[in-house]
Amino acid sequence: xxxxxxxxxxxxxxxxxxxxxxxxxxxxxxxxxxxxxxxxxxxxxxxxxxxxxxxxxxxxxxxxxxxxxxxxxxxxxxxxxxxxxxxxxxxxxxxxxxxxxxxxxxxxxxxxxxxxxxxxxxxxxxxxxxxxxxxxxxxxxxxxxxxxxxxxxxxxxxxxxxxxxxxxxxxxxxxxxxxxxxxxxxxxxxxxxxxxxxxxxxxxxxxxxxxxxxxxxxxxxxxxxxxxxxxxxxxxxxxxxxxxxxxxxxxxxxxxxxxxxxxxxxxxxxxxxxxxxxxxxxxxxxxxxxxxxxxxxxxxxxxxxxxxxxxxxxxxxxxxxxxxxxxxxxxxxxxxxxxxxxxxxxxxxxxxxxxxxxxxxxxxxxxxxxxxxxxxxxxxxxxxxxxxxxxxxxxxxxxxxxxxxxxxxxxxxxxxxxxxxxxxxxxxxxxxxxxxxxxxxxxxxxxxxxxxxxxxxxxxxxxxxxxxxxxxxxxxxxxx
Amino acid sequence: xxxxxxxxxxxxxxxxxxxxxxxxxxxxxxxxxxxxxxxxxxxxxxxxxxxxxxxxxxxxxxxxxxxxxxxxxxxxxxxxxxxxxxxxxxxxxxxxxxxxxxxxxxxxxxxxxxxxxxxxxxxxxxxxxxxxxxxxxxxxxxxxxxxxxxxxxxxxxxxxxxxxxxxxxxxxxxxxxxxxxxxxxxxxxxxxxxxxxxxxxxxxxxxxxxxxxxxxxxxxxxxxxxx
Lengths: 480, 227
Description:
Order of helices and strands of chain B: HHHHHHHH
Number of domains of chain A: 1
Distance between the termini of chain B: 69 Å
Strand order of the largest sheet of chain A: 1-2
Structural class of chain A: mainly alpha
Helix content of chain B: over 70%
Number of domains of chain B: 1
Strand content of chain A: under 5%
Largest sheet of chain B: none
Strand content of chain B: under 5%
Radius of gyration of chain B: 18 Å
Oligomer: heterodimer
Mean pLDDT of chain A: 92
Number of helices of chain A: 20
Low-confidence stretches of chain B: none
Low-confidence stretches of chain A: none
Structural class of chain B: mainly alpha
Number of strands of chain A: 2
C-alpha cells in the first residue's frame, strides 16, 4: 500500500503542476509531494527492516531492504533538489514565463516518479520499462535551457540510452525464457534467485552480458559513457543532481541485483564487473584532469564512482557488497550536494568555465564553501562519507586477494582526487580578476544546501543504526 | 496427428518466410538513402513482426499473441509513422540523405558480418531448444537488433536514427515473441506504450533541434566533446 502511495504522490503533483492556477502552486505541490514521498519512504525502509519486505501487488510491486535503501536515496535527493529548484528556477526562468516553470515542475515530478518506480517494481519486465522511462521522462529536462548545446546533449542522451535499453530488453527476455525452462516462479528478483540453479548457464551468461552492456550505457560505463558528461553538464543544476546523484545509482542497482542469480556460473560476472569498473574509473580519472567546465568535472567524477561501485560488486563477498552499498549511498548524497553547490556557483558567476572563476570565496561565501566541501567530500577526503565507502572497498579488495586491481583502483582514486581538487582549489581561492560585488543566494538554495550537507558529514563519522542494518541486509541479499 | 504435423510444418515455413523478409527489411534500412523509404521499410518490418506473432499465435493457440500482433500493427505501423511524419517537417523526408559515415556497399558487408555474429551469439542458447520457431526467430531477432544499432551509429540524420532505434526494438520483440510468448499482457502493453513515447519524445526533440539550429543532421552537432 505504502509503495502505491509513493508512486501516486509524484503523479498527483505532476497533474497539479500542469493546472494553470496561481504562480506558486506548481513549486509548492512539488516540494510538499517530495516531503511526503520522503516520509513514506522512511516508513517503507523501517518496515522492511522489521518484516523483510513491503508488498503492494505480489509479484509486481514490492520491495525488500535493498530496494527500500534505493527508494530512500531517491526520495532524499528528490526532496533536496525540489527545495533547491524553488530558488534556482525563479532566478533562471524569467518571471513572465509562468508556463515554462510549470512545465519544469511537471517534468521534475514525472522524472522522480520513474526513478521511484525502479526500486518499487519487482517484476523484471516492469523494471526494464521503468528504467527506459527514466530516460524518456528526463530528456526534456536535459534540453530545458533550449540552447543548441543542451539539445545536442539531450539527443545524444536519448539515442545512446535507448540503444542500451533495446539491448537490455534482449537480456531480460532471455532471462524470462530461462525461467520458463526452469519451469517455475514469478519473474521477479526473488523468483529469479530461486529458479537460477535450474536455468542453463549459457542463458544466465548471455542475459547478463546483454543487460550489463545495455544498462551499463545508462550507468556511464566506459566506452559507452560519452553521453553522460554532456547530459549531466547541460541540464539545469537541480536536474544534474538527480541525473548524477540517483538516476545512475538506480540503474546500477538493477545490474547489481542480478548478481545473486549468477553465482552458479563457472565464469562468473565478477571479472566482467571488475574489468568494466576499472576501465571506467581509470578513464574518468584521467579525463577529470583536462575538463574546462566545472559541471563536467563532477559528471566525470560520476563515471569514476560508478566504476568504483561496479568494481566492488565484482569482488564479491559480504564485506565488498557492504562497501559497494555504502559507496552507493555516499556517492548519491555527496554528488547531489556537489551539483547543488555547482548550481549555486552558476547562479553567482553566471557561466560554467573553470578558468574564469577565481576567488569565489570573496564573491559568495556559501557557494564557495559548499563547492569546497562538496569537492573534498566527493574526491574522497576524510572525514566524509565517500572516504569511508572507498576505504571499505579497498580493504575488501585486499582481503579477497585481488591486490593488483585494488592497487590500480587506489591509484585512480588518487588521480581523481588530484584532478578534482586542482580545479576547485583554483576556483575557490586565488585573487579575483576584478573586484566583484557580493552576490546573495536565494534562501531556498541555502536551505537545500544545508539539508543535503547533513548526510555528507554525518555518514563520514558514523552510520546510524537503522542505515547500518539496511546496508547489512542489502549486502546479505546479494550473497547467497 | 499427421494433420497437426503438416500444420506445424506449414506454419514453420510461413514463419521462416516472415523472418527472412524481416531480415531483408533490416538490410534495406541500411541500404536506403531516402528518409521516407526508410520509414516505409520500418512499416513493413513491423507488419512482418505482427505476421510472425500471428503465426506463432496459431501454433501455440494463444489469444495473447494475436493481441500482440494487433498492438504491433496499431502502434508501429500506423501511429508511429504518422507521429514522425507530423512532427518532423516534410523537408527532412524529401531530401536524399547522403551524409552517412560509411558508404552503402561497405555498410552491407558489415551488416552481413553482424548477422553472422548474431548467429554465433545465439547458438549456445539454441542448444536448449528444439522449437523450430525459436531457431528461426532468435538469431534473426538478434541480427535485427544489431543491424538497427548499426543504422543508428552510421546515420547522421535525426529521423533515420529514430527509425534505427525502433528497428532495434522490433528485433528484440521478434526474438521475444518466440522465447517469451506468455509474457504478461500488461508488460506487452507497457512496452508498446514505451515505444510510442520514444517516437514522440524523439520526434519532438528533432523538431526542436530543427527550430534551433535549422537542420536535422544531428551528426553535425558536435560542440560538446573532450579536447
